[in-house]
What does this fold into?
Amino acid sequence: MITPAFDITQDSDFLIITIRVPYARVSEFDIYIDGDDFKFYAKPYFLRLTLPGRIVEDGRQIATYNADDGSSNDAPEDEEEEEFDWQIDQTPFEEPSSDALKSQCSYGFGNLRVGVFGRLQEELNDIIDLRDPDVTPAPDRTQRRLEVEKTKFDPDHYLADLFEDDNIQHLLKYKPWWVEGQSGASSSSAESQDIRVTFTEKEKEQLRKFTNKSYLLNKKAEEPVYLSLIDLLLAYCYEVRVTEGERNVESAWNIRKLSATLSWFENYRSVTEVLVSFGRRVLCYPLHRNFCLVTKAIQDTCVVLRTGKAAILKCLLDIHEIFQENDPAYILNDLYVKDYCVWIQKVKSKKVSGLSDCLQATTISKADLGLELEELEEAATLVQEEEKLLEASDDDPRQPAALITSETSSSSDSSETEYTSSDEEDETGSAVTELPDSSDTLQEEAAAPLIRVVDNTENHQDAAAGSDSHLVHTSVPLQAPVSTEEKVQEAIVKQESPKRQSNAAAAPTPDKSQECTVQPAPSPEPKQRTREFLEVAPTMMNRLHIVGPPEEEEADDKLMSVG
It folds into this structure.
């Protein structure tokens, strides 16, 4: 709470208490009188006085408020709506010296305000983004604003409104009151257009409450005033369009957030700076973040300025009403909006028309906003194209039917060729030894390396006499890899011995391949044996195929399969 400055005077009939409460809400005063106790509250001010005598309430007490200096002369009856702690501690207010005020930074309409937030900063943190405005110069405000906007920009939100823009397109078709007023216009002069703008009784009552005063602004101070007016109108036009003329609880927040004049006390130097600032804030803060809404708001503002001072005043009165109903945004009325409502009535129409032409001649692009929008959109478009390609590939079959038919016919031709070749070999007297599928052997003996040796020599003659093919598994010593071919030849010789032939003839013959398999004699060693197989194919004579690492071989535990 802030203790306001006050004075006490007395005449023969009344005790007059003058309290200075600048930037307070006039509609929310609370006064409590009980004997010699006087208490006053108007957010964010509180005053408690204990008088030397009792105060008489006989119905003649009155209260007045001076809007120019924010002073109140009052002693009305108490009309509290809720309980309030009147015993709060208070510190007497001390007016700052003129030298201290000169050292502080200015803000508000025409930079005519100074020292306001020195005492109200804690109460008004919710309505402005700038902290310590009394000690922050204009260049630092701009730099801080740009940094905050960069952190607030959300690429996902922007891309969502860009590609899913059904609601955006609906808002772009809305026609506000200033566009409808232009439809029947035949004259382009500002004076004739001002006549078509009408004010309601409520707006006329607002105008009567304003104090008629003049503003002495030099050329240096006048330029930021005109540029800030464009900033206010841009924020207001955006708000009217996205709400379709129906204000809501977020209207005050939208206007003050989109206007850097209201939220950062920005001092613009050109129209381009105004448009860039507005565009960046549209893409960072409100619900609908689309660059088309930025360009549409600029067009709406051009129409309002071309319509004339009456249309501008009507927009400012609507902003004033929105802020007056919102706590604590009403403070912005005292800093900016109310002064604009009084000042615009005395501005020359020619200057307003020139301001409209300047705004219409100024354009901005997405690249001017400094948010890398074009790169972001290009990357998002590439991602969409890749997703479409993936979806298309998932919908199509993995292999065309024509390709499957071609492969089938090719496989059939290959099979016929193999069978024909096999028949020719049979006719010439070369018996082909059929071996069991190596994959079945590997499944049964997964841990054993496989070496198979198949011979196409005299054993085929023996096989023709006895059985179609003989498959013998035996354990043979396997030496170093350098003598592998010698071992194969030795294995072939052993296989040709009568003993091996008799053992092979005694072995049972399978039904499918007419192969017989003889298991080796059990080894006296208790450990599990690791075996390898040698396969000699009839068509690949004396060739060795080794499967498995040679370092795991054991000399006494190798099995050789000889066809």
